[in-house]
Write a structure and sequence with these properties.
homodimer; eight-stranded mixed beta sheet; six-stranded mixed beta sheet; elongated
Chain lengths: 326, 326
Amino acid sequence: MSAKPTDVTAADWTVAIPDPDLLSALGPLPAGMRAVPWDFDGEPDGARLEEIDAVVLPYPDTAGALPQLAKLKNLKLVQTQTTGVDGIAAAVGRDVAIASAAGVHAASTAELAVGLMLASLRGIDVAARDQPEERWRHERRLSLADRKVLLVGVGGIGREIARRLEPFEVQLTRVGTHARDDSEGHIHGTVELEQLAASHEVLVVITPLTDDTHGLIDAAVLAALPDGALVVNVARGAVVDTEALTAEVVSGRLNCALDVTDPEPLPPDHPLWRSANALITPHLGGDTTAFEPRIVRLLQQQLAAVAAGKAPRNLVQPGRFGNGST
Amino acid sequence: MSAKPTDVTAADWTVAIPDPDLLSALGPLPAGMRAVPWDFDGEPDGARLEEIDAVVLPYPDTAGALPQLAKLKNLKLVQTQTTGVDGIAAAVGRDVAIASAAGVHAASTAELAVGLMLASLRGIDVAARDQPEERWRHERRLSLADRKVLLVGVGGIGREIARRLEPFEVQLTRVGTHARDDSEGHIHGTVELEQLAASHEVLVVITPLTDDTHGLIDAAVLAALPDGALVVNVARGAVVDTEALTAEVVSGRLNCALDVTDPEPLPPDHPLWRSANALITPHLGGDTTAFEPRIVRLLQQQLAAVAAGKAPRNLVQPGRFGNGST
């Protein structure tokens, strides 16, 4: 086969897909485009490495795939199945476009955040632990209704959490990196976190882990929360100062519901394991049945876009799609 | 004090309130109306029994109060703090109006229903039980997103469950006593339950317990549910055939999340206590902080309505408000 033209037309692209099931789930590709299964080991079936124009990375672990990308001499687009894109730009350079799967995991993670809030506030976790001992303890509980909820993180998943909370009669305050307004109202900046914490009973963290957000929910923010407040983390463990949180939870002053921890899993004998007012789930966030249909839909949309000469969604690095040719 | 006129004007009514805290939470009453605390034992402070025009029943247990109502010779309105009104008409006769607190408990019960769905589907209950043993078990789970949910019960709480489910990307099918349409679409009749069950992965029950709904979710409906389906009950235990449900759950074919059971609590050694795919909560439904502000708001609205010569909301028996005089 001849080398591909390098202009933006992508109707004749060859796309490597890491999983034959995913490939067959995609159904018919746009006319002229072809997909080949490739497990990032050796040559793909039915295409040479230099014929590959676009590649979909495996899920969830991309560590083995990244070193193989340098072999794809005509690579123009890397599409992830994850929200994060760590290490990809370093592996492919600046000229290859990188698109994330932002949005694909939002439904699953956002519903878990609401589930953790309800489970902790309403004592579903306590009841689940009481059950094998046939213990029936009825007590008046905080409802989610009427709670003042501080949502730290207003990206894709944060938006989905906010959308799901809408019918629950809460008062929602949103916090992003910088103060600004959007169509839903005001977003506070993280500099206001400590002051805002004092008036909120539920703090939900869904911000990416970066140098700026490492330890963002620190001892001062936690100390500012009112007695009995609940900290929910569905982001990354290190966004919260685990030592400070542990002290507040073990003392009984705060409650927490954590799908992510630092380190993860928590080490044996960590005090949070046995704290009655801590709820720890094993990083259930994105890994549900919701993933499969959503990644298929995203990939179909992305391939249709590039076949039509348009930019794909979720471009983290624009590559050839960054020069207005879309 | 002279006897009150018997026409519909209620600006000068005397209202007995069962709890001094509730009385003070009501704030100023409509001009001319007065409230007195009365614990349904002896005479109220500041009023004779025959001066009482309206009474608010205690919460949650009304059994001790009902026999006292016959002593109120000028009683015109009974207002409950519960959704149910069992036994009141028998205690006061047909001429006294009875208004329920329908709506007051809806937020709390509806959010619990969503919390139970999320906890069971996403394995929050399993994680809570694993936690004291420091066990971290990650596995792919069903999301609530994409589930086909069958909601049995379209009264006040059913509506609030439906409203809360809206942003969760579920396919909701509603079932009421009789097939009909409303502003939200079609409501199926209970005669279709068995047929509908076959195509739904989550069955949520929030129908009042009546002769017609006793055992409504019977062995045939349960058998029709697909393997791995989840049964959530936030209604009354006896709406579900507990024996049939237990068999399906203990066999591992179905999952359940029950805030109500039959009997309640479950007896010692009942197999559901130790079923890993059962989640039992101790009738947490309506008993939360959401109750207090909502009952206060309802009572304020009801007293304002009658003071203005209008019918109160939630009339279960119209009494004097039934003749068009409102």
